[in-house]
Every structure is written in structure tokens, then in C-alpha cells.
Amino acid sequence: MDRPTLIEVRNLTARYGDTTILEGVGMEVYRGEILVILGGSGCGKSTLLRHLIGLNVPHAGTIRIDGVDITTCSDAEYRGTLSKIAVLFQGGALFGSMTVAQNVALAIETYTDLDRHAIDTLVRMKLHMVGLSGFEAHFPSELSGGMKKRAGLARALALSPRILFLDEPSAGLDPVTSAEIDQLILHINGTTGTTMVIVTHELASIFAVAQRVIMLDKEAKGIIAEGDPRELKAASTHPVVQRFFNRQPESPSQLQSDDAD
User: Fold this and answer.
1) What predicted TM-score, i.e. pTM, was given to this entire model?
2) Among 44, 65, 138, 261, which lies 20 to 30 A Cα-Cα from 25?
């Protein structure tokens, strides 16, 4: 791509105890793009995401975000990097005792010196951006699943992050609501230029929003494919890639072989 690199991962190895999940992974995320991390269950998608946002420390390798290696930087540099990113967690992670407006306002109140009027104005703007105008006083328990996702997205966008990480944004939603979330992701990316890294296994969402994908594999402990998802579906000769994009189960003989291993 011609766009500058915003995230750079080199030789990343991730382990839980003695179990290696990812080994020698290298990847880039370009400014303004929508990158989707995909793969089968247990392939390390969530592990990679946790390392990218700094929740896990890699066993080896480097992760640079906007030029800062978050694996070796100072606390001050790390806090500065965190101010550039935001996360939409799978369940929305809204505080149930707070209204929608209070949830969105929390980060603004914590990390800025804006007065009450400015905060309220910014909250209304973020909620309008995700289609939740008029729901400021509602509590999370009063929202549908899709509305909770929108509210979580508004909170993630509260401080106008340069990079937005989304963990299974369509999980648990019906097909129509899932498509609406996909369109909202595209709209935000197109209007704000926010770089997005999305973890998902939902094929419809992958084809709807991904500008580029990287595919992880459990056996390979790393990336087995990268590129446009439509091109990978049409042209990849890797059997795991073909099975994933064409929803093809493994043959009985393959399953028996896996069980024997």
C-alpha cells in the first residue's frame, strides 16, 4: 500500500505458559485502512489483538504503534500511545449502572479538561455519529444488542482515536443488525479516516468491510494468507484458506487424522 505504516509487528511470539500460540508473526497496518484478522477457532486472533493493544506482553518480538515500540518504551511513551487507540470489546463492556451518555462521557471526563457543556456537546455528537441520538438517558439494560454495540462504539470514539480495535463487532447480532453495524464501521472509517483493526470470523462482515485481511492458522502458529478476501477466496490454493472462505468442513478422514494426533 502507498499509505504510511501505523502499526508494525516483527517476529512476534506469544505464549501462555509452555504453550506457543503465535510464533514469528510479522504484519503491518496502514494508516486509514480497515484490516480484518480472521481464522478458525483457537488460531490466536484474540491473542494477537491483546498483544496489539498492550494487554499481553510478547514472549519475543516487537510491536510498534506510530513509531513507538510498546514492548520496550517508557511508561510515559506507553500512556501517550494508549491515548491514540481505543477498543470496542465483544460484549460492549458498558457500565450497567451508568446511562449511555455517562458511559460515553467517562473517558472525556477522565482524560480532558473540558467543561460540562463541552463534554455534553461532544457526547451528543458521538451518539449522533452512531445513530443513538435521543438515547442519552437510557441504561444499557434498556438497549437491544445492536444498540449496545453502537453505544460501545460511541464510547470508543469519544476521544477521536487514531486506531480503533474491534473484537467481534457482529457477534450475537441478527443478520440485519449485523449489516447495519458493518455499514456504520464503513461510514466512520470513510468520514473520520480512523484506522480499524477488526477480529472476526463472520464471512458476511469480512466481505462487507475488509480492505485487507490476514488469516491465522492454529497449526502454523501464524499467518498463512494475506490480501483482499475476495481474491483469497477465488485464487488461494491453501486448503485451510479455501475451507474457511467457502465454508467447507474437513473431510471425515482429515478429522480422524486430527483426532489421532
Assistant:
1) 0.90
2) 261
Q: For residue 102, what is its C-alpha cell?
A: 455517562
Cα angle for residues 160, 149, 129 (degrees, 5° grid):
45
Q: At residue 20, what are phi and psi to the nearest 5 degrees?
A: -90, 125
Contact residues for 5 (Cβ-Cβ < 8 A; gap 6+): 28, 29, 30, 31
CATH superfamily, domain 5-84+163-260, is: P-loop containing nucleotide triphosphate hydrolases (3.40.50.300)
Mean of the pLDDT values across residues 157-180?
93
Angle between helices 145-156 and 100-111 (to 10 degrees): 10
Reported as a pLDDT band with limits 50, 70 and 90, residue 1 is: low
Kindly list the domain boundaries of the chain, sorted by start residue: 5-84+163-260, 95-160
What letter does residue 98 receive in the DSSP assignment? S
Q: Over range 202-225, report the average pLDDT.
A: 96
pLDDT-derived band at 260, boundaries 50, 70, 90: very low
What does DSSP say about strands 163-167 and 195-199: parallel, antiparallel, or unpaired?
parallel
DSSP assignment letter at 141: G
DSSP secondary structure code for residue 24 in this structure: E
